[in-house]
Design brief:
about 375 residues, alpha/beta, 7-stranded parallel sheet, transferase, Polysacch_pyruvyl_Trfase
Length: about 375
């Protein structure tokens, strides 16, 4: 069956790329033909760009802007490796930057079903158009509508009253809905008046061996403490330094500079995202992982590594609690610097990590949900 996938724009986030890749792998393994819709932010008018250029130029002259005026022109170079991975490994639609183009695409393609999921697809502040992710463009078209591991990202309601009204009506047209966080089940019931099932992120439905095939060097080489920190802070750095001292291991990372206020044409190379394969290999080669990323935590688990997960409130803490409670690893999550807690985590029996995700009830529930949904396409 031909299946469209609606997810957030890909390319600027490793976790987003890997969940899109993983869901396609699951669908391909089930004999389907998945296509991820390349829904980008709505196109802007020439007048908008002219006004933006003028404003930024004025800010630059006043010394109030550190970023290059048209830094967006540098983004294709910065994301060259992630975009290459997408082009070679994920089947994508053409670029779509409006609801009108989205409707035209579905008019031209004969999809049997559309799946919404998963990486914060139902979080309005991250969405190019939140109504599109509730499939408003399908109108009364007869097509199977599914949500797999769709995520609100947080445990509070961020929709406006108008968005809530529209999306609640659209949600009732779905054939079945699953969400990634247990808090999402309550949000669906309370605000959308629909039932939802909690399932795992698509990245956790793939076997570790499949990820090892993407690694570009020997995974037997151990390098030390692998860090993947999205939002730097003093307390997080102090955690890493403390672990380095206690374990007598050095840190390493596969991560670019992300403070674009420091970006110039002379240091552009520092901002280029490393290859997706390098990012994954880092988990495989590590002795221990320290991360404030949801998918960083996922890959530490998938590669069976001891890890410390640093809570990241700005990006949605409920995702971390839900993931780690469902895998019986919630004690690996910390929200501030606490040396006593760090000692406890480092002294934790290693057999805790000899877990197989496919033995967990949440894994079986996730596979069962997807299998049942796909059988009826």
């Amino acid at each position: 069956m031909k299946i469209a996938i609606m997810t957030q724009p890909l390319g600027q986030n490793y976790g987003g790329i890997m969940q899109a890749w993983a869901l396609q792998q699951v669908l391909k393994n089930a004999g389907h033909d998945p296509v991820t819709i390349d829904r980008q932010s709505d196109a802007k008018s020439a007048a908008y760009y002219a006004a933006r250029f003028g404003y930024r130029t004025a800010q630059k002259l006043l010394g109030k802007r550190k970023l290059p005026i048209n830094y967006e022109k540098l983004l294709p170079y910065i994301f060259q490796h992630t975009q290459k991975f997408i082009a070679e490994n994920i089947k994508m639609s053409e670029r779509i930057d409006s609801t009108k183009k989205l409707k035209s695409h579905f008019d031209a393609e004969n999809y049997d079903a559309v799946i919404v999921g998963s990486d914060q697809t139902w979080r309005p502040i991250y969405s190019p158009n939140i109504n599109n992710y509730f499939l408003d463009f399908l109108e009364n078209r007869k097509i199977k509508r599914l949500a797999y591991a769709s995520s609100f990202g947080v445990d509070s309601w961020e929709f406006t009253n108008e968005q809530t009204k529209i999306c609640a009506e659209l949600a009732k047209k779905f054939d079945c809905i699953s969400v990634r966080e247990n808090s999402g089940v309550d949000l669906c019931k309370t605000y959308l008046d629909v039932e939802a099932t909690q399932v795992l992120d698509p990245t956790m439905l793939i076997k570790r061996e499949d990820y090892e095939k993407l690694c570009n060097t020997s995974i037997n080489e151990k390098k030390g403490i692998y860090t993947y920190i999205l939002d730097n802070s003093d307390w997080k750095d102090k955690v890493v330094r403390t672990v380095e001292e206690k374990l007598k291991l050095s840190r390493y990372k596969n991560q670019s500079e992300t403070d674009y206020s420091k970006l110039t044409k002379y240091n552009l190379e520092n901002f280029v995202f490393p290859k997706v394969e390098d990012w994954i290999t880092g988990f495989a080669q590590s002795s221990l992982v320290i991360t404030d990323s949801f998918h960083g935590t996922v890959f530490a688990i998938m590669f069976n590594k001891p890890f410390i997960s640093l809570i990241n409130n700005s990006r949605g803490a409920s995702r971390f609690y839900s993931l780690l409670s469902s895998t019986d690893l919630e004690d690996r999550l910390i929200s501030n610097y606490d040396e006593q807690m760090i000692d406890s985590l480092l002294n934790h029996p290693q057999n805790k990590f000899n877990i197989e995700i496919n033995e967990k009830d949440i894994y079986k529930q996730s596979k069962s949900f997807l299998n049942r949904a796909l059988k009826h396409i």
